[in-house]
Amino acid sequence: xxxxxxxxxxxxxxxxxxxxxxxxxxxxxxxxxxxxxxxxxxxxxxxxxxxxxxxxxxxxxxxxxxxxxxxxxxxxxxxxxxxxxxxxxxxxxxxxxxxxxxxxxxxxxxxxxxxxxxxxxxxxxxxxxxxxxxxxxxxxxxxxxxxxxxxxxx
Length: 154
Ligand code: DQA
What we know:
CATH architecture: 3-Layer(aba) Sandwich
Bound molecules: 1,3,4-trihydroxy-5-OXO-cyclohexanecarboxylic acid
Structural class: alpha/beta
Distance between the termini: 36 Å
């Protein structure tokens, strides 16, 4: 009798991290609110933690709404982490794109949007996200990555 075993290699889960408008200016922009770390530094921390968690992460910074919608529509990731920045408070198009692709999405903010101006308290994204992490500075992204790992391991 021949018994053969097939090694089943588990596919590495892919996480797309999108940074929205003006986040390319991190480190220089309103440092009292957003901190002194540059986006390059934050991305390095995201990629290092992703590696530790066994995730394949890719980061993108996009200033325009249409580019963000197009990136969300591409089928090249398993979970999305998104800081939609100012589009959080205005964009039905980004909300609809997230709803359309039916992949888990985690909304991230460096600042606590609920302790700031009233117009920041409304998120169009929260209703279609698996969850929202707001107020932990760059660590918000790292917490989101851990949440993505949990969701993708289910
Ligand atoms: C932000 C909060 C938004 O209100 C703002 O427009 C941003 C950054 C944050 O990460 O705290 O650009 O998303």
